[in-house]
Write a structure and sequence with these properties.
Blueprint: H1 5-8, H2 11-15, H3 20-30, E1 36-37, H4 49-60, H5 73-87, E2 97-100, H6 102-114, E3 120-125, H7 130-137, E4 141-146, H8 157-163, E5 168-174, H9 186-196, E6 203-207, E7 233-238, E8 251-254, H10 257-270, H11 276-288, H12 290-313, E9 326-327, H13 338-349, E10 351-352, E11 354-355, E12 367-370, H14 375-393
Parallel strand pairs: 1-10, 3-4, 3-5, 5-6, 6-7
Antiparallel strand pairs: 2-8, 7-8, 9-12, 11-12
Helix pairs in contact: 4-11, 5-11, 6-7, 6-10, 8-9, 12-14
Length: 399
């Protein structure tokens, strides 16, 4: 007798769709012939040697066992020293820092530690696909703020004020932004802080994963930098993007011990600890990795300028990104949805990019293009894109 597996699934699992990013990545891998993939947000750099060497040496020295649940104290100390050096914020490594399996685990831990059924969480879209999913898995209610290109995809204080209700539990803020590349300056964040001061019960999840990939020339900045609300901010960060360490699966959360402790409790039962080897690698990254970051950032910045200029030459309106490693051009007026555009582009020109609505409904009419790829691939992909846009305008393709 067959089992109706669908009826056994939780409602939360049923309502969350699979990642559209991975869908296009998988489609590209399944296609015959060479495909240029600008779909996945993964650095094309190999992790710097000194960081890899630190991980290797930890294996040679026999660190192949569980670490303490929160992570080795030396690893947590390296993280807090890095944050103090770059942000000017002081955290105690003992009870205000938790090492996680990537930054994504931090999002999940916060949702499960804070949300009760019916709680609302404000999400600023377009945004990383996991924000909404973690809220839904925890039985929360996403309250969406749709940012606009004419406002540089920034969160405006009046938008935040309008979204807050008596059910608001926390706000997720992710800047520099995946997928838009938008950046919030200290002055921008100060206005958000002023709104939050009027609502003392609201927590903030500040996703800082792209903090070092900022092309404005300013140091990383966070709502946690404001002393008045620092005790309400959970900073989520990691080593995947800035240090090209995606495969190490190591991130961290920082915040008041009253919030880190319950997150550690969940981590304790579900994950146990992050990989020991990765924790030794992060010590080297956090302590001596500034020069490596600067070199990669300079190369990304060069690619950023090339891709934005190329998109404009291809006839697409493109907001100028000042952070992360994504461009988010508009395809409005071409007679195709974001999904249709990306599917047709992949089939006809063998280039994989991601539809903007994968990052929220307000992303419709845009596509996300990652420039975490070689310059050769970027130049060739933009050439094909210009060709594709020209053919659309000439009526070669039906929507």
């Amino acid at each position: 007798m067959s089992i109706d597996y669908e009826s056994k699934l939780s409602d939360a699992v049923k309502v969350v769709p699979p990642s559209a990013i991975r869908r296009f990545f998988d489609l590209a891998n399944e296609m015959k012939g060479e495909v240029i993939s600008l779909s996945i947000g993964e650095p094309d750099f190999v992790t710097p040697w000194t960081i890899r060497e630190a991980g290797i040496n930890s294996l040679v020295d026999g660190y192949t066992h569980y670490s303490p649940n929160a992570g080795y104290i030396d690893s947590r100390r390296a993280i807090t020293q890095y944050i103090e050096r770059r942000y000017g914020i002081s955290y105690r490594p003992k009870d205000e820092c938790l090492i996680t399996v990537g930054g994504s685990e931090g999002l999940d831990l916060a949702a499960r530690a804070l949300i009760n059924p019916g709680d609302e969480v404000i999400i600023v879209e377009p945004c990383f696909v996991a924000y909404k999913a973690t809220v839904l898995f925890a039985r929360g209610i996403p309250k969406i703020i749709s940012t606009k290109q004419e406002n540089n995809f920034k969160l405006l204080p009046e938008e935040l004020e309008d979204a807050i209700t008596d059910k608001t539990k926390y706000l997720i803020l992710g800047f520099p932004s995946n997928p838009t590349g938008a950046v919030m300056s200290r002055e921008d964040l100060e206005k958000i802080k002023d709104v939050l001061l009027r609502y003392p019960d609201i927590i903030v999840l500040s996703d800082e994963l792209y903090c070092e990939l900022n092309y404005t020339g300013s140091n990383p900045v966070s709502l946690a930098c404001f002393e008045e609300i620092r005790n309400r901010v959970i900073m989520i960060n990691g080593f995947s993007k800035s240090y090209a360490m995606t495969g190490f699966r190591v991130g961290y959360v920082l915040g008041p011990k009253e919030l880190i402790a319950p997150m550690t409790k969940i981590h304790q039962y579900c994950i146990m600890s992050s990989p020991s080897m990765s924790q030794f690698a992060l010590i080297e990254a956090a302590t001596n990795g500034d020069e490596c970051i600067a070199e990669m950032r300079e190369e990304y910045n060069h690619r950023r300028r090339v891709i934005v200029n190329g998109l404009k030459e291809a006839g697409l309106d493109c907001f100028t990104p000042y952070g992360a490693f994504y461009a988010f051009p508009s395809i409005k007026g071409l007679g195709m949805t974001s999904q249709q555009f990306c599917e047709k582009f992949l089939v006809e020109k063998h280039v994989a990019i991601v539809p903007g609505n994968a990052f929220g409904e307000c992303g419709e009419g845009h596509v996300r293009i990652s420039y975490a790829a070689s310059m050769n691939d970027i130049v060739e992909a933009i050439r094909r894109l210009g060709e594709f846009v020209k053919e659309i305008k000439e009526g070669k393709y039906d929507a």
